[in-house]
Design a protein that fits this description.
The protein has a domain of 140 residues: Orthogonal Bundle (Tetracycline Repressor, domain 2). The chain has nine helices and no strands.
Length: 202
């Protein structure tokens, strides 16, 4: 077997581990997912797992990144075809509303799930979540600032405050709705976010 073929096979195995583990960690959490669970989900031996990742934490980090990027890609499919800044934000709200109980990664929002568990127990995963939230906020701030330049967003809107409130409200709404297994709680939140977006329009 050529080096290229071996590399391709190794990459496919690694990607399979990440993909299978992403759902496990998202549904069961870091503490609730054992290496045995990952072995059963992937069909690999312990040696097969350790041949690709140093430890469970390394798998969890890669799985979280994969889960987040999956969501970003799905949301991006909605927003990239929309030109107006505030209509892009509305599309984000509708995406989460429509996929509240049928998320791209089984188990719900990986940011929310990981943040709740890792808050005090896993500083490395907590740092990963904060990195993602920082990236999300920065993207929103840039988007809103561009919208202000294009005269689509009111000049008195403070992008950083808007982004923080938007994300906090969105994630909080998902948490309560999934906890009660009732979409009405997120519906209330979605209505408020859509109003906030419309109020920001020039």
């Amino acid at each position: 077997m050529s080096d290229k073929a071996q590399l391709t096979k190794a990459a496919k195995t690694r990607n399979m581990i990440i993909r299978k583990s992403a759902e496990l960690f998202n549904k069961q959490g870091y503490s609730g997912t054992s290496m045995k669970d990952i072995m059963l989900a992937t069909g690999l031996t312990k040696g097969g797992l350790y041949g690709n990742f140093e430890n469970k934490e390394a798998i969890a980090k890669a799985a979280f990144e994969y889960a987040v990027m999956t969501i970003i890609r799905e949301v991006g499919k909605r927003t990239k075809v929309i030109d107006n800044t505030l209509d892009k934000l509305k599309a984000v709200v509708f995406y989460y509303k429509e996929n509240l109980f049928t998320p791209a990664i089984d188990g719900g929002c990986p940011i929310l799930n990981t943040a709740v568990e890792a808050d005090d127990n896993n500083p490395i995963m907590r740092e990963k979540v904060m990195d993602v939230l920082d990236m999300w906020q920065e993207r929103m701030v840039v988007t809103l600032a561009k919208g202000q330049e294009r005269n689509e967003v009111r000049k008195d809107i403070r992008p950083q405050e808007f982004a923080s409130l938007f994300i906090s409200t969105l994630e909080g709404g998902m948490l309560i709705s999934r906890l009660y297994k009732n979409p009405k709680h997120f519906d209330f939140v979605a209505d408020q976010l859509l109003k906030m977006i419309e109020d920001a329009r020039v």
